[in-house]
Amino acid sequence: MADLSATMTGPRGAKPRRVLSGRNIMVYGTLIVVSLYYILPLWVMVMTSLKGMPEIRLGNIFAPPVEVTFQPWVKAWSEACTGLNCDGLSRGFWNSVQILIPSVVLSIIVASVNGYALVNWRFKGSDVFFTILIFGSFIPYQVMLYPIVILLREMGIYGTLWGLVLVHTIFGMPILTLLFRNYFSSLPEELFKAARVDGAGFWGIYFQIMLPMSLPIFVVAIILQVTGIWNDFLFGVVYTKPDLYPMTVQLNNIVNSVQGVKEYNVNMAATLLTGLVPLIVYFVSGKLFVRGIAAGAVKG
Length: 300
Hints:
The protein is mainly α and 300 residues long. The protein has 2 domains: 13-69, no CATH class; 90-297, MetI-like (MetI-like fold, Orthogonal Bundle). Helix 5 packs across helix 13, helix 8 (161-186) packs antiparallel against helix 11 (215-230) and helix 11 runs antiparallel to helix 14 (264-297). It has 14 helices and no strands. Helices cover 71% and strands 0% of the residues. The protein is flat. The protein has helices at residues 2-9, 22-49, 53-56, 71-78, 90-120, 126-136, 141-155, 161-186, 189-197, 202-210, 215-230, 234-239, 247-255, 264-297.
């Protein structure tokens, strides 16, 4: 009897979808085209960086190297001329590291405290303060170049790494403050109220409640700052001097050099070396980045 009733009612559940539907073909086709658009230049860069100049002159840029050589990478790192110095990108790498670490740490600490205070410890004029801060993030950097030069000169830190660290910290605060404010506003308000009832103060709540729950948004902030600061060229060339140039400025000097033979394999290796740090940071923490965005990083 049970079998008869099952036969009469027919199969249950959602109707199976066709694998090769028009919608799927369009979606996957678009994704494949976009992926190739980004992957092909990277493929050409990697293959070129592993070839010698005689093989490059044959002209087949998409073909893998017949004889793999890492000499272009060695030269890009320690021998290529980046101006008056011919010690490769190694000097610029350590300059970039010295700029990156304090800039990321300072900007994220200040922005996280700002966002926490704007959400949970609202003060008179906090909305005006937040509006001015966000408005500052839309001012073009070029407008502020010369005033900041004068400011850093008066402070005695123009042309130093710490001057550039201060610039990156200031320009990173508005957008990071917005991210942290929106994330903290998405957390249950009852946690803050319960902590206040238990007698916790400003810093107690920040360190014991907010920070442990904010790993995803901190990862978002780290990725944004690492990418922006490491890839910066404009501030690096304006606010530092040749001995302290970051890696991107040295890369520009290598690629745009007009002396001698144009070594495309060295140029490609130098470009890949310069981009490795933000790529590694993103691939290591990519899942937390997506989680941080989904958990309130773009909520109003």
